[in-house]
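Lecture notes, part 5. Sequence design as translation. It can be helpful to think of inverse folding as translation between two languages: the language of shapes and the language of residues. The source text, in structure tokens, appears below.
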């Protein structure tokens, strides 16, 4: 299992490294990469989620049990991180970055590894994970930004953030199509599928471009706190929740895998847009991406097959 996980991570690491190199050699314009991130976040990734959720073969998957485990573990860790905020002695905007680093996950890496481990069944598992975690994480993060971010929105602003989030809308659309047993229109489905296929490579390139190694060394305590929650506390909470509901072996591996993934580059975008500490978020993202190369295979290897 650990060999398969490392094998699945190799193209991920190579694309991240390519993004890092491109940003510093070929595509050096500062204006390009934020726009590429925005394209991926608002168009490509939603297309991937919508198509994968609408077309996923979930008949043989423990959808409800898997979703319950993921939502319960995410909420539990989120509550614990907020409860521990006074001990961290951080500014409010810095805490939002630690919070995101503790519960957000990198969809691109998760889908890639799940597909590498279990093929099309792994992609279906990944779709269920995204359907459960993406809305949960986005709701929690928007609420935390509303309380601790420097640009604190009103109640109507919070509601607007929730109902207009492209990832939440895409997941809701895919879940609705799946629940109603409806298909995407023949002329539209291939276009959405093609857009979704571009999400992972572009997203991974953007992650590489966003890496800031110098900045990552400047915030040892916040990075340590968020990474401990992400790579230790979250997988442990997921494993315990899975034992309670009796989640099967493959579903258990995927659940723990997704909860042990490093935080996403979209965390940086949200930090910039909602009044968080964006430089700290970049440092957390860079460090967790590197730590994930060792942490993700290790966590997966520790799950009983």
């Amino acid at each position: 299992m650990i060999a398969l996980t490392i094998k699945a991570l190799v193209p991920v690491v190579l694309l991240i490294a390519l993004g890092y190199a491109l940003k510093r050699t070929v595509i050096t314009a500062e204006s390009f990469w934020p726009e590429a991130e925005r394209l991926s976040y608002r168009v490509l990734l939603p297309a991937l989620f919508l198509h994968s959720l609408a077309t996923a073969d979930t008949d043989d998957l423990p959808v409800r049990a898997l979703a319950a485990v993921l939502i319960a573990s995410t909420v539990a860790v989120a509550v614990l991180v907020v409860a521990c905020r006074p001990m961290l002695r951080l500014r409010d905007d810095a805490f939002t970055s630690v919070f995101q680093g503790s519960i957000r996950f990198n969809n691109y890496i998760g889908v890639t590894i799940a597909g590498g481990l279990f093929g099309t069944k792994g992609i279906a598992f990944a779709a269920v994970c995204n359907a459960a975690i993406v809305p949960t994480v986005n709701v929690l993060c928007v609420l935390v930004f509303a309380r601790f971010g420097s640009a604190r929105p009103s109640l109507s602003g919070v509601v607007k953030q929730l109902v207009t989030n492209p990832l939440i809308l895409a997941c809701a659309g895919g879940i609705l199509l799946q629940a109603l047993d409806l298909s995407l229109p023949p002329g539209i489905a291939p276009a959405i599928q093609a857009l979704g296929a571009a999400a992972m490579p572009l997203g991974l390139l953007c992650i590489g471009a966003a890496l800031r190694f110098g900045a990552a060394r400047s915030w040892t305590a916040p990075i340590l706190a968020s990474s401990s929650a992400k790579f230790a506390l979250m997988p442990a909470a997921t494993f315990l929740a899975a034992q309670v509901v009796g989640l099967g072996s493959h579903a258990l591996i995927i659940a723990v895998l997704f909860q042990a993934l490093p935080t996403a580059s979209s965390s940086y975008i949200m930090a910039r847009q909602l009044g968080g500490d964006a430089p700290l978020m970049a440092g957390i993202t860079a460090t967790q991406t590197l730590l994930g190369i060792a942490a993700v295979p290790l966590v997966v290897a520790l799950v009983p097959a």
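The translated text above is only one of many valid answers, since several sequences can fold into similar shapes. The first helix runs from residue 2 to 25.
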